[in-house]
Amino acid sequence: MARTGGNARAIGVLVTAFLLLGIAVLAVYGILRDRGVAPPTPGQQRCVATANGSSTALSLDQAHYASIIVGVSVRRDLPPRAATIALATAYQETGIRNLDYGDRDSVGLFQQRPSQGWGTEKQLMDPYYAANKFYNALLKVKNWSTRDITEVAQAVQRSAYPEACRDHEADARNVASALTGHSPGGFSCLEREGNPGKPAALAAALTRTFGKLELERTAAILTVTADSAEHAWAYGSFAIANSRMYGTVEVVVAARQWRTDAFNLPDWTAADDPIGKTEVRITVR
Q1: Dihedral (C-alpha) 63, 67, 70, 74: value to the nearest 10 degrees?
Q2: Are residues 53 and 170 part of one domain?
Q3: Whether residues 208 and 89 fall in one domain
Q4: What's the alpha-carbon Rg for the chain, to the nearest Å?
Q5: Residues 137 and 53 grouped into a single domain
Q6: Alpha carbon of 80 to those of 95, 134, 173, 174: distances in Å?
Q7: How many Cα atoms are found within 13 Å in the side-chain-facing hemisphere of 254?
Q8: Alpha-carbon distance 74 to 54, whole Å?
């Protein structure tokens, strides 16, 4: 009986060890998958930003907020590095999530504090307001465009873990490059919820993000004429990043097109019906 009891205990220990190992493996895989290192599970909803042969995966929520952070920088005619610094800070502070809580009175994408003069809690929960406040402070930092990203981010707003911002620089650079249009065809999303198309709401979001646009809307199709090829790609990428919200199913920029897919992350391909080099045609459901 003693030996039987000992064997049972040994088996129990082994089972527990295997269960703990399995949980640990799944946890590590989840972290790597979210960082774009591990391959996604089949059919997983996500967005991917690709620049210079390097890719970064984002959730649909992260893509939504990242498109606003980057879009505000485009509207302000800032170089992509400004968006990279803002995104790296948002990665570090909240994982690019618009949190209504934080350390002491910190809230929002950047965990800015009302008590430190950033604005009211309601204002800071508005991602457009928060992004603009971040850029206002960034532009006051001497040599912000060339200095180390950690030094600059820390000069904009104090962080409890200042060195950690550097860990997100590569991902932030990929996302900024794709969403600013500096890496054409560098942004794609797999969105499987199939929400109804909202062309009027998408037109309003584009205008709020990028400012007054040369935009025409016919039924479920928006056509935007940009002042540069880069801006055309930025507008098209914004529509894709917010496909779940507005029901984007197709985007054509110049001679390339993106079409939603039911299971696979869509690739940019040659357009069936090409348009001008600075034009964007967006179709929603």
Answers
A1: 160
A2: yes
A3: no
A4: 22
A5: yes
A6: 20, 15, 8, 10
A7: 15
A8: 22
Helices (H), the chain: 2-34, 60-75, 80-94, 121-124, 127-138, 149-156, 169-180, 199-210, 229-241, 243-246
Tokens standing for 58? 């984002």
**Domain-embedded: residue 212:** yes
What is the full per-residue pLDDT of the chain (285 aa) written as tens digits?
445 555 656 555 555 555 555 444 444 445 444 444 456 787 899 999 999 999 999 999 999 999 999 999 999 999 999 999 999 999 999 999 999 999 999 999 999 999 999 999 999 999 999 999 999 999 999 999 999 999 999 999 877 666 788 999 999 999 999 999 999 999 999 999 999 999 999 999 999 999 999 999 999 999 999 999 999 999 999 999 999 999 999 999 999 999 999 999 999 999 999 999 999 999 999
Task: Output the pTM of the full model.
Answer: 0.86
The answer to whether 261 and 197 have CB atoms below 8 angstroms apart is no
Clarify whether residues 169 and 199 are in a common domain. Answer: no
208 in the same domain as 170? no
Closest Cα to residue 233, out of 210, 212, 217, 216?
Answer: 210
State how far the Cα of 5 lies from the Cα of 10, in Å rounded to an integer: 9
C-alpha of 257 from chain center: 20
Whether residues 124 and 199 fall in one domain: no
Number of compact structural domains in the chain:
2
60 and 172 inside one domain: yes
Helix axes of 149-156 and 80-94: crossing angle, nearest 10 degrees: 70
Residues 51 and 175 in one domain: yes
